[in-house]
Amino acid sequence: MLGRNKLLKPLNLTNKPTPIEKYQFNDFTIHIKRDDLNGLVESGNKARKLEYLLSDALNKKCDTIITAGYLNSNHCRITAYFCSRLGLKSILVLNCLKKRKKIEKDGNLLLDYLFGAEIHFLNNKEYKEKERYVENLVKRLEKKGYRPYYIPTGGSNEIGILGYRDCFLEMVDYLKENKIDGIFCAVGSGGTYAGLLYGKLLTNLDIPIYGILVDETIDYFKIKIKDILKKLDCQIDEKSFHLIDGYIGKGYGIPYKEEIKLMKEWAKKGIIFDLTYTGKAFYGMIKESKKIGLKNPLFIHTGGIFSIFAHKEYLK
């Protein structure tokens, strides 16, 4: 696995490196890595992962891409977009949480349809068994002559995280020159955080990487990230983990008033955070930086602008 990944070249579907912007305040400076500005309207962190994953799929002569996520998944939307560009069939397995009736085509879901994705809706109970569902789906497709390729939720595996290894490597000079004392990102499926950790380990830079959880638990992500990095022959100790779970609120995709207030304030500066990932993570970064005493934190803006339309009732 490691040898193949070393030789795997990503597709060139985005503009890189993405810019880093600096915002000076009285007590500290915020640096924002704008991965939402990668040359695509359909922007965000999933693009870096998919450049590797879709390269792997094409190398294997696959013609159908299957992936899964929540109803307004950013990952599923950009997967459908790239598939439309590359002439691949896309199948999205979406968790609609409740019954399938009266699902509003809004935000990312509307774009999924426009990009020509075939969509399979599962309720919350069914979605917990999505791996079995996908396994059966793959078998049915193969019988029909298709060559399916399954991308896990968020594109977070040993291939997808190479995109965020690259992200870390392209920031190395900036991190040193600006004396960055902490890097923050949202943790939803773990791939962005794992990739940044991998890049840090390859460069031996002594900068803590903080992951603000928006779902699941710290123990869950520690196990998952260790497993991913192990497949790359990379061992990681407990001291390298800085995972924080105090900003999830009532649950995944459920915003809270402090996050909404901050999101509106920064929108007036021209930066849009979504209310599922970046809003919670950015709020967490500010609170934790002040608590820890950081003066030069850097935030990875992972995009997600289209998902705010599914939360429009919170922004009126």
TrEMBL record:
Keywords: Pyridoxal phosphate. Signal peptide: none annotated. Its cofactor is pyridoxal 5'-phosphate. One of its GO terms (molecular function) is D-cysteine desulfhydrase activity. InterPro entries: ACCD_DCysDesulf (IPR027278), D-Cys_desShydrase (IPR005966), TrpB-like_PALP (IPR001926), TrpB-like_PALP_sf (IPR036052). Residues 14-303 form the Tryptophan synthase beta chain-like PALP domain. The modification N6-(pyridoxal phosphate)lysine is found at residue 46. Pfam families: PALP. The active site is at residue 73. Belongs to the ACC deaminase/D-cysteine desulfhydrase family. This is Pyridoxal-phosphate dependent enzyme. It comes from candidate division WOR-3 bacterium. The lineage of its organism: Bacteria, Bacteria division WOR-3.
